[in-house]
Amino acid sequence: MDVVTTIISIIVAVIVIGFIYYYFKRAAVTGNNYVIVDNTSDGKTQFDSKMLLPLSNNEDPGMAFSYACWVRINDFGYKYGAPKVVFTKGPTDLTSMCPALLLDANTNSFIVKMDTFGGTEVIPVNNIPAKKWIHVAIAVSQSAMDIYINGTLYLHHTLVNIPRQNRETVHTAVNGGFDGQIAGLQYFRTLLGPSEVSNLMQNTPQPSQQDINGPVPPYFDMSFWTGH
Q: For residue 179, what pLDDT is reported?
């Protein structure tokens, strides 16, 4: 076997191994995900999931779980002065949230809340535009939380203590929710990484006729965002 043939064989072997790894990595994620809201749901209409989600499928470093969804905000002025629930894992009175995604009471910001054994941690995501679909992913490990906006890591937040999971179901649009829509809400028993989040973004919500005929595209463009 000459040198060229040997090099080609090595390259082919590396490619095959890469495909095998990718396949099983994807299979692991798919086997641990639970679809809570599949189609587009009205942000003002409360949805109470009956699905009992299993707790974290602990990985080598410890606890790990993730949530991902698409959100579109039509009007941040709706219910001005009151926080607006996009979704929460916990009771509807918000006494336990692991996690919760809300809209800020007075600004165009997302608020991510996470219960830990040291208290509830609150992380704002600023300058969210209206009338554009935005993909949000929240990946939680035993010691940190990663927040992705449209596949880009917005923040790696170190938790002060271990997340305090609860056995409640997931609720969206609690008490009138928000003026907008939510779609593709999923729970994962694993820690999503950048490649998995990027893959989830390929499954975009169906745009409305208003989106199609509108003056601006319905999907999020990072050039519109000055949150960082």
A: 98
Mean pLDDT of the chain: 85
Task: Give the CATH number, domain containing residue 96.
Answer: 2.60.120.200
Residues in CB range of 226: below 8 A, 6 or more apart:
127
* 17 and 87, same domain (yes or no): no
DSSP 49-100: ----------BTTB-EEEEEEEEEES-TTTTTTS-EEEEEES-TT-S--SSE
User: Which residue type occupies 28?
Assistant: A
pLDDT tens-digit readout, 33-77: 899 998 899 999 999 999 999 887 665 667 899 999 999 999 999
Could you read off the pLDDT of 95-116 as tens digits, one per residue?
999 999 999 999 999 999 999 9
Backbone angle region of 57, left / alpha / beta, with phi > 0 → left and psi within -120 to 50 → alpha: beta
What's the token pair of residue 68? 């991902």
The pTM of this model reads 0.80
Give Cβ neighbours of residue 61 (< 8 Å, ≥ 6 apart).
141, 142, 143
Q: Per the structure, how many domains does the chain have?
A: 2
- Find tokens 């939510």 and name the residue: 182
Cis previous bond, 91, omega within 30? no
Q: Which domain holds residue 112?
A: 34-224
